[in-house]
Design brief:
alpha/beta, Rossmann fold, seven-stranded mixed sheet, about 35% helix, globular
C-alpha cells in the first residue's frame, strides 16, 4: 500500500480557513499538515465533541445524530478521539458526507486504517494536524486540537461535556465565539 502525501498549507493558500486567525488570534497555527481533499475546508462544518465519560443515553443520541448527519450529508469536523466520537466516526464513514479528522499529533508516519483510506481516496475525508513533530497525543496537544476543531466549525454539537473536563472548557470557548449549537437529536 503506497503512502499518502502529506501537504502543508499556510495562510496564503486558497484553502486556508480564514476563521482560524479571527478566532485563535495569536494561538492560530502558521501551518496545517493535511492528507486528503483540502476543498473540504471550504464547506459548512459541524464541530462534533463528546467527553470520554458519557452516559448511555447520550451515546445513543450521538449515534442517532451521526446517522442523521449522514442523511443530511453534513460536513463533520472532530478529533474523533473519545469512545463515543469513534463510534460516530464509524457511522459517518458509512455515509457520503465529507469528514475532517483533526489529530492531536503529527501526520508523519501515520498508519491510516483501511476505512479511512477508502474515504480519502473518494475525496471525502481530510486528515488535518497543526503539529509538525508531536508523535503522541497528550493533554496539551488534545487541548490545542480541540481548539482547532472549534475554530474550524461553523456550528457545533456537544453530545456530552463532563463537568470540569476538557469539553466543558471548549464549550466556554465556543460560547465566547458565539458559535451556533446543534441540539442532540
Amino acid at each position: 500500500m503506497k503512502a499518502l502525501e502529506v501537504l502543508i498549507i499556510t495562510p496564503s493558500d486558497p484553502h486556508w480557513p480564514r476563521q482560524l486567525s479571527e478566532r485563535l488570534t495569536t494561538a492560530a497555527p502558521a501551518h496545517l499538515w493535511i492528507i486528503g481533499n483540502p476543498q473540504i475546508l471550504g464547506k459548512h462544518k459541524i464541530g462534533f465533541f463528546c467527553s470520554a465519560r458519557c452516559p448511555e443515553d447520550a451515546i445513543v443520541n450521538a449515534q442517532m445524530a451521526a446517522r442523521k448527519f449522514c442523511q443530511e450529508e453534513a460536513t463533520m469536523v472532530s478529533g474523533f478521539h473519545s469512545p463515543t466520537e469513534k463510534q460516530c466516526l464509524r457511522i459517518l464513514l458509512e455515509g457520503k458526507q465529507p469528514i475532517i479528522i483533526c489529530l492531536a499529533r503529527s501526520l508523519a508516519r501515520i498508519r491510516i486504517p483501511g476505512e479511512w483510506r477508502a474515504a480519502i481516496d473518494s475525496a471525502r475525508l481530510l486528515l488535518l494536524s497543526r503539529f509538525e513533530r508531536s508523535r503522541r497525543a497528550d493533554k496539551e496537544t488534545a487541548r490545542r486540537r480541540n481548539e482547532l476543531v472549534a475554530a474550524l466549525a461553523d456550528e457545533v454539537l456537544i453530545v456530552h461535556a463532563e463537568p470540569g473536563g476538557a469539553i466543558e472548557r471548549i464549550s466556554r470557548l465556543i460560547d465566547r465565539w458565539n458559535l451556533p449549537r446543534r441540539e442532540v437529536v
